[in-house]
Design brief:
single chain, 634 residues, Rossmann fold, Jelly Rolls, 7-stranded parallel sheet, 5-stranded antiparallel sheet, globular, EC 3.4.21.94, Galactose-bd-like_sf
Length: 634
């Protein structure tokens, strides 16, 4: 399984290199060194001989190490003069001076904190925490102008005694105030680390504007203690929370990201990330090589082989951005979560894309008091103003923690299937009328903005209890088109691949779809005007790249970029797939060229829900009936 994944990763890694190579490189004082052989003592000897400072072993590998050189600038436009002497050392097989790049928190807005510790009266089956009535994302009664009942449906899970017990979620962010009285009880010190300061204490660095409150707020949404008279209550208030401080530094590096995403992978169950490349509507970026290694090893080896669960905020670039241009959110190894407001709309900052699996909540209308997400804040304080998809991802992590308590044997793929099957349309809608809800040929309803709907904690817990692990996953390189096609404003390009989905190859045959990737190479005189649609043999059409008004790139384009869609989940892959590339531009001179389209389909050979009993989820019953009527294996 790992080898097959690694093959596909090769394309992804080339993508990032191609996309970022046009930008001016910024080199840090961090080095990735691979030794010819040896151990920790050899690594220390290399450090003494070259002036390097050993930071840590990389990804647990015997011969790979992360070093820092204190005499090299933290950021420089040219490679260090020390690089050659390190490379020439008799014990060194390979050395890479790491580039620095920006990673930004999503949805951060400085807000005045509040003190909320008085107790209130409440019914015995609801929390007594003073801010609970303002946590509309847990129980929406119409407060702050919301739609009653539009929430995470958490209370039914709590009523069954499921609170996330035994599950640890790591917040990869700017640190956690682990001394906060609402978090201290659930803080997992063993699973926490500070990758910015290289010590086991990921406490946020002080700033006057509380800029480093981001991770603490996210943590509170998951694990704030119940009934202690402080702030509110977490979605999975019985679960543990860990802090992986890694964002608070001048520049991110590939090895720091990789180290965080692989840290204590048999103790940490869920990694929650509310950050990514800059949400400016013109960036195309994603994980580098070592981070991709960490993610793939995580889903294959984490949680003692069941797979680490990576939850990602889809992005805050608004309608002028597309989260399929974010290689973290658009990865099939992560669960990408978008947000909805408390009345069912998309927020102004919400990005949309075909890789989004589901949604949770960020905030309500800005004009409404207390419409933000209520959670903890730094220094023992509370806030009512957390927002953005930053707030959405931790809510999802909390729901997944509940599911893992209900069934600790769930694999990373089981969790994705559960999300698809139990998420609800509820009252989510596009106020602009551009993206309707659509039912694919497997009977699953999806939306380009919201994925398969809002997470339903009660249903995911109920379904998880009797869940049977899904069949083995395979991938099929279904076909490729490699020739030049020119397109302009007047003339779109339509391409076809007719595939049997590796029918005659038992090692790669696909009968039931999970993820679909379209690896595309193209350039345009204005990249942001390009739109791409992918249509399955069943007729299901997915917008895999939307117009990005701010993206004026004319040189780099996309190089084997893996556009991903989840919209064909459960369908049959056999037949003609169509790719339409068009320009949404008023300038008639805009034109482009596409030179490559590779179609890769991921899924199972066996019907994934055949062993599940009826009544677990209405979606399961619908899909089983459709699969019984249609022969997907022919």
């Amino acid at each position: 399984m790992f080898n097959r994944a690694a093959i596909l990763l090769g394309w992804c890694l080339l993508v990032i290199a191609a996309v970022t190579s046009s930008k001016e490189s910024l080199f840090t004082n961090h080095f990735h060194v691979t030794l010819k052989s040896g151990n920790e003592e050899v690594a220390k000897r290399v450090a003494r001989d070259t002036g390097l400072r050993l930071v840590r072993r990389h990804l647990g590998k015997d011969t790979e190490f992360h070093y820092v050189h204190d005499q090299v600038p933290e950021a420089d436009s040219v490679l260090s003069r020390h690089l050659r002497s390190i490379a020439d050392h008799e014990d060194v097989a390979r050395v890479v001076q790491l580039e620095g790049f920006k990673r930004v928190k999503r949805g951060f807005k400085p807000a005045k904190a509040t003190q909320s510790r008085q107790k209130r009266s409440a019914s015995s089956d609801e929390p007594t925490d003073p801010m609970f009535k303002k946590e509309w994302y847990i129980k929406n009664t119409g407060q702050a102008g919301g739609y009653p009942g539009l929430d995470l449906n958490v209370l039914p899970a709590w009523k069954e005694g499921v609170t996330g017990n035994g599950v640890t979620t790591a917040i990869m962010d700017d640190g956690i105030d682990y001394m906060h009285p609402d978090l201290a009880h659930n803080y997992n010190m063993e699973a926490s680390y500070d990758f910015s300061s290289n010590d086991p204490y990921p406490y946020p660095r002080y700033t006057d504007d509380w800029f480093n409150s981001h991770g603490t707020r996210c943590a509170g949404e998951i694990s704030s203690k119940r009934d202690n008279g402080i702030c509110g209550v977490g979605v999975a208030y019985g679960s543990k929370i860990a802090g992986l401080r890694m964002l608070d530094q001048p520049y991110m590096t590939d090895l720091i990201e990789a180290a965080a995403m692989s840290y204590k992978r048999d103790i940490i169950d869920i990694y929650s990330a509310s950050w990514g490349p800059t949400d400016d509507g013109k960036t195309v970026d994603g994980p580098r090589n070592e981070t991709m290694r960490a993610i793939v090893e995580g889903v294959n080896k984490g949680r003692n082989g069941k797979g680490s669960i990576f939850v990602w905020a889809s992005g805050d670039g608004g309608p002028d951005d597309d989260c399929n241009c974010d290689g973290y959110a658009a990865s099939m190894w992560t669960i990408s979560i978008n947000s909805a407001t408390n009345d069912g709309e998309t927020a102004l900052y919400d990005e949309s894309c075909s890789s989004t699996l589901a949604s949770t909540f960020s905030n309500g209308k800005a004009s409404t008091l207390d419409a933000g997400v209520a959670t903890v804040d730094l220094y023992g304080k509370c806030t009512l103003h957390h927002s953005g998809t930053s707030a959405a991802a931790p809510e999802a992590a909390g729901v997944f923690a509940l599911a893992l308590e209900a069934n600790s044997n769930l694999t990373w793929r089981d969790m994705q299937h559960l999300v698809v099957l139990t998420s609800k349309r509820n009252h989510l809608y596009d106020p602009n009328g551009k993206h309707d809800w659509t039912v694919n040929s497997a009977g699953l309803e999806f939306n380009h903005l919201f994925g398969y709907g809002v997470l339903d904690a009660g249903d995911i817990v109920k379904t998880a209890r009797d869940w049977k692990t899904v069949p083995e996953r395979f991938h099929c390189i279904a076909g490729e088109v490699k020739r030049l096609y020119h397109f302009n404003v007047q003339n779109a390009i339509e391409m076809e691949i007719d595939t049997d989905a590796c029918k005659d190859d038992p090692k790669h045959r696909i009968n039931y779809i999970e993820h679909v990737q379209a690896f595309i190479t193209l350039k345009s005189t204005r990249r942001g005007d390009v739109t791409v649609f992918l249509t399955a043999p069943t007729g299901t059409t997915s917008l895999i790249l939307s117009k990005r008004q701010k993206d004026a790139d004319s040189k780099v384009g996309f190089t084997s970029w893996p556009f991903m869609t989840t919209h064909m989940w459960g369908e049959s892959p056999r037949g003609k797939w169509k790719l339409k590339v068009a320009l949404d531009a008023t300038d008639a001179s805009v034109h482009g060229v596409i030179s490559e389209w590779v179609l890769v389909i991921h899924g199972t050979q066996e019907q994934p829900y055949k062993k599940l009993r009826s009544g677990l989820s209405s979606k399961i019953d619908v899909i089983k009936k459709i699969h019984e009527k249609k022969s997907y294996t022919e």
